[in-house]
Structures are given as structure tokens and as C-alpha cells.
Design brief:
This protein has a nine-stranded antiparallel β-sheet with strand order 4-3-2-1-9-8-7-6-5, with no helix packed on it. The chain contains one helix and nine strands; from the N terminus they run αβββββββββ. β3 and β4 form a beta hairpin. It is globular, with a radius of gyration of 16 Å. Helix content is about 5%, strand content about 35%. The chain has one helix at about 1-10; strands at about 20-25, 40-45, 60, 65-70, 70-75, 90-100, 110-120, 125-130, 150-160. The chain has about 160 residues and is mainly β.
Length: about 160
Amino acid sequence: MGAWLACVACQDLSGFTTAGDSYEGAVVQGGFVRSGVTESARACITLDANHFEDAPGAIWTNDGLFQGVSMRPIPQIWHDPLSTFNFGEGRLKNLLYVATASETFADGKADDVFVVVSLMHWGHVDVRLLRGAPGHPQDGGASPLSTNLFAIFTLSRQKGPCSY
């Protein structure tokens, strides 16, 4: 715990580098904060704190939606106040990336998904996946809800690489 307190004081995020290990965990169970993934969904990521701005790591999910897909930074964000966004308590740093799905969604597209990585004070990582929004009836009908993706995963560090 002392190492993480030191990390908080100096904002040294190098302790989040996985270097052959990974972060893995389950989706948050509340249906009101989950769309497009099942209750049994799990995610796994690798991180390289020395490359948050160019090659931060990769993401996997046990449902095959992501299979070792690189998380891609948006270069312009690092020169914009959006790079400092913060929400909620306990976050050292929030990072915004994009990853292209390995599989297609119900609408037949394998689109880009926003990946919000939150490095938490006590060493775990939260990951949010966001894609699209349900259609609005006012716009001529609702698109299938299954094309919308919103999922929150709480990940803990584990020895070794992602297993799926």
C-alpha cells in the first residue's frame, strides 16, 4: 500500500505497467449501467505507462468482442483539456482510447469503441467501453439497443498474460 501512496503523491504511473502481467475482471452487474454485453462478460488489458500517448496496451474480452486489440490514443487529446478529464473519487488518471471490435455488432459493423481507462488510487483499473446510443423515436425510430455498448469493468492485476 505504501508504494501506491507514493504513486499518488508524485503521479508516477509506472506501477500500472503490466510487463508480461495483465489486469482482468468482471463487468459491473447493474443492468442500468450495462448494455451490449452479458452479465458474465470479463475484460483483460495490458498497459505500458511509458507509452500512454502512443502504444498504451491492448484489450481482450471473454466474449470475443476484443481479441488482443490495440488501444489507440487520439493524438490531439494530449494537447487538449480533455486529457485532464476527471470524474468520481479515487482516480489517479483517466485515459481515453479507441479500439476496433474484433467481431461485428448486431448492426453488422465492427466499429470503433471508446475505451476509458481509469487508473485507481489503490492499484486496480476501471475500464469503460462506449459505442453508440439507442436510436431516438423522434428521429424516425429506435435503432436496436444491441448496437449500443456501455460496460464498466473493474480489473485487478494478475500474474501472466490475458487468458482469452
